[in-house]
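Task 17 of the worksheet. Students: predict the tertiary structure of the chain below and write it out as structure tokens. Keep your answer in the requested format; marks are given for formatting as well as content.
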Amino acid sequence: YILDRRKPKLLMFSIVCLGLAIRPFLASPHLITITSFSNWEFMVRGEFLNLFLLLAAGYWLLYYMYPNVWFRRVALIVDVMFLAVLLLVIAAPFYIVAYTDPLIDILAIILLVYAVSMSLRGAVRKNLDDLIYLIAMFSVGIGIIADIFTGKAYSESRQVYVLSVLMIVFIFLQSSLLIK
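Model answer:
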């Protein structure tokens, strides 16, 4: 984005990559075990901010990839929610901030459904770029859904968060399409 400021899609992709890179530091079970209780609350607040930043940037990235009037309105609503959560994280007690967790999951699922449906629509029309986007969205979608199940303890396995691994596939595929 620094080299080509005319493409807002690159800025949103950069913010998504940054958020995905920061997330393991805030959500890693290994990091949580080596910190004290007072730092733990600070880390979880940072994780909520990071997740909403990821969602806001993800919505705008998808809007720039697949422009649509109604999806632009949804992205603006997510931006307003991000500002509200920012105020909550700064000023509200932690137990109130924790109530935004289901909202994060719902917004992530909506984002995934829109991303997969739009890239699938393009792939059916034999658009190679959309086929690559579809593979990238499936990789990050599998990671997000697995992380939701792990974070909510719905999964019986003792797996770690897999989004960190699958984001490498997503970033590689997305960056190859954005650079061309």
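Marker's comment: The radius of gyration is 17 Å. The mean pLDDT is 80.
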